[in-house]
Amino acid sequence: MHGGRLHIRCHEQKALLEELENLELQSCIRKLHLRCCNNIISLELPPSCVQAMVNLETLQVSSCDDLNDVKINAEDKGKQGFISSYSMALPKFCKLHEVHIISCSKLLNLTWLIYAPCLQSLAVISCESVEEVVGGSDGVVEENSEFFSRLTTLQLENLPKLKRICNWVLPFPSLKMIYVHSCENLRKIPLDSNTGKNSMKKIQAEQSWWDGMQWENEAIKQKLSSFFMPSEYMDLYQVLGYDY
Q1: What gap in Å lies between CA 75 and CA 170, rounded to an integer?
Q2: Which CA distances in Å does 144 have to 11, 168, 185?
Q3: Over the chain, what HEC string results?
């Protein structure tokens, strides 16, 4: 680890968790890059691990070819092991504001982001199996008023199966920029009339994608049309300066 930045390559969940649960490292980690962690199908983080990484600001996960799920699990004291839960009582990544998910071909969704209330920038690139950013219609998730409330930048590229961000409308009060490329099945973005009310600056995507968008009502379309900028190709890796 150098300057609060940690790069990890592991091929087993046990080894990865041992790295992350190193008490001498946890509170020092500000930037975490998980790369080429193959053979890890599901990454299940115990609450103690999340709670200890209090200073984590940036997370990048790239080229983890077998990863299909990330969970923050609630310990069930009445049983052995862990049970999955989306209870908002679980600890959160309170300083995490930037997440890049790149080239994770089997990843299905990013529902764990409900535990990142301060998230400002989200990029999901070349994750061919992702169908939705936040899965299901869990009432706990829907009632979380902090969810995406600070998000300013959303970048989605080369997600051929992506159909939706989530199943309910979000206000996105802080949203400034949306970048979309090669997401041909994404026909609706859960925006409302208050989306980026005083902050929106740019929506950049292919003209064909914009023309095929489905809107909740004509007023939202008219409001957001003034921010649209057609672009047939964007190299988001270069534009956004990703380390990949």
Answers
A1: 30
A2: 34, 12, 27
A3: CECCEEEECCCCHHHHHHHHCCHHHHCCCCEEEEECCCCCCEEEECHHHHHHCCCCCEEEEECCCCCCEEEEEEECCCCCCEEECCCCCCCCCCCCCEEEEECCCCCCCCHHHHHCCCCCEEEEECCCCCCECCCCCCHHHHCCCCCCCCCCEEEEECCCCCCECCCCCCCCCCCCEEEEECCCCCCCCCCCCCCCCCCCCEEEECHHHHHCCCCCCHHHHHHHHCCEEECCCCCHHHHHCCCC
Q: Using CA atoms, how far apart are residues 18 and 136, in angstroms rounded to an integer?
A: 30
**C-alpha to C-alpha distance for 174 and 180, rounded to whole angstroms:** 18
The string of pLDDT tens digits covering residues 127-176 is: 999 999 987 655 445 555 578 999 999 999 999 999 999 887 888 889 99
pLDDT value, residue 51: 85
| Per-residue pLDDT reduced to its tens digit, 84-106 | 455 555 778 999 999 999 999 99
Query: CB–CB of 169/194 below 8 Å?
Result: no
pLDDT per residue over 35-87, tens digit each?
Answer: 888 888 888 888 888 888 889 999 999 999 999 988 877 654 434 444 445 55
**Amino acid found at 111:** T
- CA 62 to centroid of chain Cα atoms: 13
Distance CA 185, CA 174 (A): 25
Instruction: Report how far residue 54's alpha carbon sits from residue 93's, in angstroms, rounded to the nearest whole number.
Output: 7
Burial class (CB within 10 angstroms; exposed 0-12, middle 13-18, buried 19+) of 89: exposed
